[in-house]
């Protein structure tokens, strides 16, 4: 565990006494608030955030407050409450936090706001916007090589820029390995309804899809259930979701949320967090070198279902993306 005095000493080295933030001058632990409108029990986006926060609480001795399932109408009040209570760092986890943070951040100059995923920045606001299209490109390439119907389906919780970007990467990868493939994407405008997710998944399967990819948080569990019921493969998101359906979830894009949150804390410690939008891509594996914060989950018990030549091609594509030999562009507008 890093003591408050050691953290304060680190800031002196980087910033000098005149620029030391209040928490360092007072030689106290960082006070961090983790806020999300998702659920910590969703076994995905919200759960990954909570688990990462608990590890960092122990590692850095954080004075930590966590709150989930915040309604959209209460995002701004909850942000104000966390800042008014003296939070040094407020991590706003979710795609809807950008505008509320922008509205209130100037009122709380002593708090640093980190939006994950976001595209908002100002003096005391930074965002982490992962280049998810790099990970989804690889899953799309895999599906393109394995599909028997030349039909793939995607279910999104909302047509938000980062989800559109995710699906655009999936399309690019699938069409690279299979120019004849068709990808259909549905947005259900609900992140917390497994029922709606399952209905959307079943509708895509009825249209011929034999692979489903979801970016819908709790609703995505229903998409996986639809794939399980119909005996096709699905891809998970945020965490390795193979545990939800071991014979169905072939792989997942896994967010290295611990690495992302630790990066945010270190930025604040070192005084380098002001006004930045960070766009990290993929990494080889959890905690890998470099700035990447996503990786492709192993096939777990389904490895025998993937032909050796497909595994080899996927490994080569992964290295090509990591080395930037293949560039997967950021796209916020959907293409056919």
Mean pLDDT: 90
What is the CATH topology classification name of the largest domain?
Rossmann fold
Categorize the overall geometry.
Answer: globular
Rg over C-alpha atoms, rounded to the nearest angstrom: 20 Å
Q: In sequence order, what are the helices and strands, one letter per element?
A: HHEHEHEHEEHEHEHEHEEHEEH
Task: Give the structural class.
Answer: alpha/beta
- Strand order, main sheet: write it out: 2-1-3-4-5-11
- β-strand amount: 15-25%
What count of helical segments does DSSP give?
Answer: 11
For the secondary structure, the number of strands is 12
Question: In which range does the helix fraction lie?
Answer: 40-55%
C-alpha end-to-end distance = 50 Å
